[in-house]
Specification:
2 helices, 2 strands, alpha+beta, two-stranded parallel ribbon
Length: 83
């Protein structure tokens, strides 16, 4: 399920769990620094919400008031096990 499209401003997803969160936050920071009117959307499963990448990304976005939407899906999986 990796896809992207420069034409639509879609950056390809990442395979490692939750690494897309700091990527999204970085894109939001770059947009803010460039004065662009944008919002960044990132999604992840609830099993990855215990990773440092999520907490660091959410904290950084909050401190810097970045335009990021964090979508946490309760898919009932933590990497590859339904726990």
């Amino acid at each position: 399920g990796h896809f992207g499209g420069k034409k639509f401003n879609i950056l390809s997803g990442s395979s490692p769990v939750t690494t897309q969160v700091p990527h999204a936050v970085g894109i939001a920071l770059a947009g803010k620094m460039q004065g662009k009117d944008l919002a960044v959307f990132t999604s992840f499963g609830e099993g990855s919400s215990n990773q440092g990448d999520f907490h660091e990304g959410a904290n950084f976005a909050g401190v810097h008031k970045l335009p990021v939407v964090f979508f946490c899906e309760n898919n009932k999986y933590a990497i590859s096990v339904p726990l």
